[in-house]
Specification:
Helix content: 40-55%
Distance between the termini: 36 Å
Number of strands: 12
Order of helices and strands: EHHEHEHEHEHEEEHHEEHEHHEHH
Strand content: 5-15%
Radius of gyration: 22 Å
Strand order of the largest sheet: 2-8-7-6-5-3-4
Largest sheet: 7 strands, mixed
Number of helices: 13
Length: 398
């Protein structure tokens, strides 16, 4: 791929941590240790038991991240599987009876699992967000019925970074006798998730410095959950299949780093500073719109650039060494506007002009400043080529 010679040309700048994070050095080292453990954790011999001890130690580390007892951690093949196990496993155990409440801005894994539950006869209510990108807890309260078994809401939105009032929602749901699942895939390692009072919490290792293909679900003691993958009795019978020992050890190492980082005020202040520097740089452009600017993760910045296509801008930035996305990686390449922005009432043309910048532990101030410069230069170039005038752009920003 040949990069444009026009404008700033920085080294590779990765600002798509919401899609996946670079693997932490600690996780790389743990991965190697896991590969060397060739035994099956279910085997009785010493090689198998060495692998079992390593997995048990890793489970304890992930339990600290999730804020639960070590036997409350179920390892899965990723965040989507953890989410599906939480929702479908709960309703399968209830013989597909009851009612599910979720929201229109959830990740596709939650919405897909809700749709699958509905085909089995589960009643589903999907609550819209406010235009701010946040879900009003009172709308959740209104949706809860006497037969509501589970409420599923994300901790923070993967596209906009909007932090949801999950603790208030949990309080409302528990008062009504319903269980709560929180999708914490985007917040693990960024916000503390151990204090969450939700019953079920799902995470994915590659979102906080682990490797792809491994996740975890926090399951409370006594919770009835039917396995989705059948076979052996691994993971306390909740998830059959030989454990991914290298991936689990890498996840545990990343979790230990994440627990410290998410509670460190210096780290939080640095991420807030990066967000401010990016937005200050982008403010040189006329008519831009930040979709969520309060009660939002510092690490995720969703911006509309009226007068250009978000996918075209992302491709141009990629050619110039800056990696961003247009929204959820699960919907990359889709012509449909983001379901999250649509649910917020964002017009389709503005939704299609959106790019998402997301930071992580490897992001530097220099990189953010350079990315803003390249973005401003690229947007101006695209607007000139498409004949988008400042006046038209300002009107389009609404």
């Amino acid at each position: 791929m040949t990069r444009s010679a026009a404008g700033p040309d920085p080294a590779e700048i990765y600002l798509d941590h919401a899609a996946t994070t670079p693997v932490a050095p600690e996780a790389v080292a743990a991965l190697g240790r896991g590969v060397a453990l060739h035994g099956n954790p279910s085997s009785r011999h010493s090689a198998g038991q060495a692998a079992r001890e390593a997995v048990d130690g890793a489970r304890a580390a992930v339990a600290r991240l999730l804020g639960c007892a070590h036997d409350g951690v179920v390892f899965t093949g990723g965040g989507s599987e953890a989410i599906n196990l939480a929702l479908l496993g709960t309703f399968a155990a209830a013989e597909w009876r009851g009612h599910l409440v979720t929201t229109r801005i959830e990740h596709a894994a939650v919405l897909g699992a809700a749709g699958a539950a509905a085909t089995h006869g589960v009643a589903v209510t999907v609550v819209p967000p406010d235009p701010s990108g946040h879900v009003d807890p009172e709308r959740i309260a209104e949706a809860i019925r006497p037969d509501t078994l589970l409420v599923s809401v994300m901790h923070a939105n993967n596209e906009t970074g909007a932090i949801q009032p999950v603790e208030r929602i949990t309080e409302i749901a528990h008062a009504a006798g319903a269980l709560v699942h929180v999708d914490a895939v985007q917040t693990a390692g960024k916000l503390p998730i151990a204090p969450l009072r939700a019953d079920l919490v799902s995470v994915s290792a590659h979102k906080f410095g682990g490797v792809k293909g491994v996740g975890a679900l926090r399951v409370p003691a006594g919770h009835e959950l039917t396995a989705l993958i059948h076979g052996g009795g691994q993971e306390s019978g909740y998830r059959a299949g030989t454990e991914n020992v290298p991936g689990i050890l890498a996840m545990a190492a990343a979790a230990e780093v994440a627990v410290t980082a998410s509670a460190d005020p210096v780290v939080r202040a640095h991420r807030e500073h990066l967000r401010a520097r990016l937005l200050a740089g982008l403010a040189e452009l006329d008519g831009i719109r930040v979709h969520v600017d309060s009660r939002v993760m510092a690490e995720t910045v969703s911006v509309a650039f009226p007068g250009v296509r978000g996918d075209t801008l992302a491709d141009l930035l990629d050619l110039r060494g800056v990696h961003v996305s247009t929204g959820s990686a699960c919907h990359a390449g889709s012509e449909s506007p983001s379901h999250v922005l649509t649910a917020m009432g964002v017009p389709a043309d503005l939704a299609r002009s959106t790019a998402r910048f997301s930071f992580g532990s490897t992001t530097t101030e220099q990189a953010v400043v350079a990315a803003a410069e390249v973005t401003v230069d690229s947007v101006r170039g695209l607007r000139r080529s498409w004949g988008a005038t400042p006046a038209a752009v300002a009107v389009g920003a609404g």
